[in-house]
Design goal:
Layout (H helix, E strand, L loop, with lengths): L3 H6 L1 H10 L7 H37 L3 H36 L20 E6 L14 H8 L2 E2 H7 L6 E2 L2 H19 L3 E3 L4 E3 H7 L11 E2 L12 E3 L4 H6 L5 E3 L5 E10 L18 E11 L4 H19 L3 E5 L11 E9 L13 E12 L1 H6 L2 E3 L7 E2 L1 E9 H11 L7 E2 L13 E2 L17
Parallel strand pairs: 4-9, 8-14
Antiparallel strand pairs: 1-11, 2-3, 5-7, 6-7, 9-10, 10-16, 11-12, 12-13, 13-16, 14-15, 17-18
Length: 460
Amino acid sequence: MLDRNYIRENPDEVRAALEQKGVADVDFDRILELDEEWRDLKARGDDLRHERNEVSSKIGELKQEGKHDEADEAIERSQELKDEIEEVEERAAELEATLEEEMLRLPQIPAEEVPVGDSEDDNRERRREGFEDLRELPEEVTPHYELGEELDIIDEARAAKTSGSGFYFLKGEGAQLEYALLQFMLELHREQGYIDLFPPVPVNSKSMEGTGQFPKFVDDAYRLGGSNDEPYDDDDLWLCPTAEVPVTNMYRDDILLKEDLPLKHQAYTPNFRREAGEHGTETRGIVRVHQFNKVEMVNFVEPENSYEAFERLVDEAEEVLRRLDLPYRILEMCTADLGFTQAKKYDIEVWAPGDDMEDGPEEGGRWLEVSSVSNFEDFQARRAGLRYRPERHESAEYLHTLNGSGLALPRVMVAILEYYQNDDGTVTVPEPLRPYMGGTEVIEGHEPVGESALGAGEKE
């Protein structure tokens, strides 16, 4: 949420942010009008209270002086003022609630250095890593969705029976690889100073508002026990779209101390998103799915240190890919692709060579986003009431929040299955993962089960 004083004093900057981020469903002029009316009412209320105090103080004097008629008039006037104050306060409270609701729809202001752009085509590639010494790949790399089926380690068809499209089973070495990646990432981030959390997966509406998922992205969420169109109540819960939500809101309405910062948490959660599986170009495989595992890193820092923390967080996330020896690149998001809540964001994209894509590197293949590292400055802190006290005797101030995936697992698995693929259709397990897979060095797969796995003429 933006500071209300900021929008009053910098309306042009807010209008620019609305345009640059493509937010067209906000009537900013109405917000300014509501705020002006609210301020007028607050001033009117102050004047009325001041007048009532003066009138009330005279009632006793008038009675003592025997001026009973004037005292009665003063009493009547005091009651009139009381009624008018109540009307003003009631209207001001209504305006305050409406204004707060409308303010939730205003996006974060991009940092000054963020490139202005009209679409994702205007994002800037900062650098590429890992292409100097690529491993030798098969002449034709089999896409992960075909390879996963051949090795019988990914089963989308049976998941469609149990849960619908956009879900999948991992089986045998596929499941082992997923567990290995989780353990590897968590242990790595512990080395980087992160404190583990295992948060609840369901989150309430207030938490979704605190990190900026609501109200803008309510249609992307999975609601427990009700329709997304129904009004929120105290009991409604939503499946976690990212661990950012419970971890950030863990300290909602708390005041941390300067010595607590920087506070770095990591958390693994399964994540659920409706939008993730709706893109027609990704109907096969596990690139865009409705449920996926992810390790999330969340930082709470002092404002003056947030951009230093941002660069450190990028490095901490890409260390996963460095140790796995997977080629990747860093993209700086332009204003149009920045996101509703972010002041600055870098995407980390891993290279997967299984498909020839027009936007892939010279070697073929495609880029898959595995982490978005974001600085929210005080945007989330204002929404969630996240504050810290610079000194114990000083007033509390809003802190800054940052987060980044470390990393999203399905796309890392896609990259491993395609980049570490061998000529015989097996997959070499990256060395850092082998201790978590019982020493397994090569994924060889296994024979599928059931009549559906039999070839023509083999069924009874």
